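Q: Is it fine to ask for two folds in a single conversation?
A: Yes, each is treated on its own. Send the first.
Q: Here.
A: Result:
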Amino acid sequence: MTIVNISDISVELFIAVMFFLLIVAPLVSLGVLRLFQGRKRSGFTLIGSGVLGYFVFQLVAGLFS
């Protein structure tokens, strides 16, 4: 068994991954679920919200770097 060294991960990368896992991915997956349920408007709205959230986060992260 080996130990993985995670000390080289930057704070920005950690926050980006957490943002993706907690906000963007659930929005997109719920959007896909709604599309399979036949609720196209709701599905595309959720997917669009996830994509928009990702771009807003990229803009904000770009201001701090």
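Q: Second one now.
A: Result:
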Amino acid sequence: MQKLFLFLMLLLLAGIIYARRDVWYPKLEGIGTRYQTIRQNDGTLAEGNFPLTVSGGIDYETADMNGSLVILSDANFYIYGLDGNLRESRQHAYANAMMEVAGKKALIYESSGNQFRVESKSKTLYTKELDEQIVFARLSSNGNVAVVTTSQLCACTIRVYDENGQEIYSRDCVDRVSDLAFNPKGNGCSIVLLTVQDGQILSTVRSFLFDSKGEQWTSEPLNTFCISLSVTDSGVFLMGDTRCAFYDNAGQQTGMYAYTGTLVGGSSENGKAALLFENETKRRSSLVLLDSVGADPRQIDFDTVVKNVHVMDENAYVLTKVGMETYSFDGTQKSSVEVSDSYDDFLQIDKYLFLFGYDKIDRMDFAN
């Protein structure tokens, strides 16, 4: 009788759980991958623990944080050594997390949310919760953080925090800010303001220091929609959707390039820029190399699909459907190696090239 009673109780409990499956199933769905979305393989490769496996088809961001590979997933912030060993794993609760890395620190913020945090290799340095929604945020090499937020009184507001999380600067903007870039010292920045005139979108660069209320300079409007902005010791580079331009430290335009094809990617570093164009009709890609010193643009045509380009160490690294190629800015090819078609992006750290695919991260030796 006791066994029969126990069996009936278990049967009743199973019936109740099944009847309420619509309540508890969404809470458990994906729990096996939500907090372990990136894991190491069994270590059978000759070196390290690669490939790292990305499960569930999640979106992830990667960056080089002072010689370590950092990965931001939908629920975690990971720090890996170059050997593929996991050094740190920290959870976050941001619905739409974005990452910026500079030097020894990483900034993680919630796009369209109101929270951000600054991480080091050893710990979370500080967290902030704002009253307004975050449009985007940037991190400087000295640890300053600039956050562009929505505003009820104007188009947006810029707030800058020091390495301890104390607000050191604020600015209201009547026009939309499409991008912001710190200067090399981190004590000032340049922003791009978008305006519309006669049905055309104009991008204007303004530069200012945090210890001054006025502006250092304002550029002439450029007839393009700014995609990204970068600042170096020699000046500013603005990459738009139809053209790009170099500016000196006084805001004077020193060079401009109008596109003849459809821009699908680009990268810039230290006054050099590499732009990737695609001809859908001919199914061909081309790479245009630009230098702020005024040299003529160099164009390199490819018979295969080009997936991505990055400027690193004064060279342009190009990932195609069949391989990885490196070019100097005079157009000379410096190296080439075959890679699988399964990778969409890459990052070089030290002597290694990390290749990022839909569900895996690989590493290979790569020297110019």
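Q: Anything structural to flag on that second result?
A: Two points. Helices lie at 2-19, 21-28, 31-34. DSSP finds three helices and 33 strands in the chain.
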